[in-house]
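User: Please fill in residues for this 96-position structure.
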C-alpha cells in the first residue's frame, strides 16, 4: 500500500497519534515534582495518624494522577493534591 494509512496523519509523516511529540495536540500531563512529592508524603503521614490510607495512582495511558483516600474499605477519589488537603481540613485535622 502506498496511500495514507488510517492511523497516519493526513500529511503522511509516518507518525500516528500514539507516536507524536507535537505538544499542541497532546493534553497537559500532571507530573509530580519534588514539592508535590514532599506534600504528598506529608499528607500521607497526617492521614495515617487518623487511620486513613492515602495512595497516588498514575494512569499510564494519559498520565493523570489520582489520589485515593481509604478508610474501613471505603474510598474517596481526588483529582488534585489541593483537594486532598481541603479534605484534611474538612475532617478537622490541622495541617499547619
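Assistant: Residues filled in for all 96 positions:
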Amino acid at each position: 500500500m502506498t496511500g495514507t494509512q488510517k492511523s497516519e496523519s493526513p500529511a503522511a509523516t509516518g507518525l500516528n497519534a500514539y507516536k507524536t511529540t507535537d505538544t499542541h495536540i497532546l493534553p497537559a500531563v500532571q507530573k509530580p515534582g519534588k514539592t508535590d512529592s514532599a506534600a504528598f508524603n506529608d499528607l500521607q503521614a497526617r492521614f495515617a495518624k487518623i487511620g486513613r490510607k492515602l495512595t497516588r495512582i498514575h494512569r499510564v495511558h494519559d498520565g493523570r494522577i489520582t489520589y485515593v483516600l481509604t478508610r474501613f474499605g471505603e474510598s474517596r477519589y481526588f483529582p488534585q493534591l489541593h483537594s486532598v488537603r481541603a479534605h484534611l481540613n474538612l475532617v478537622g485535622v490541622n495541617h499547619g
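For context: The first strand starts at residue 53 and ends at 58.
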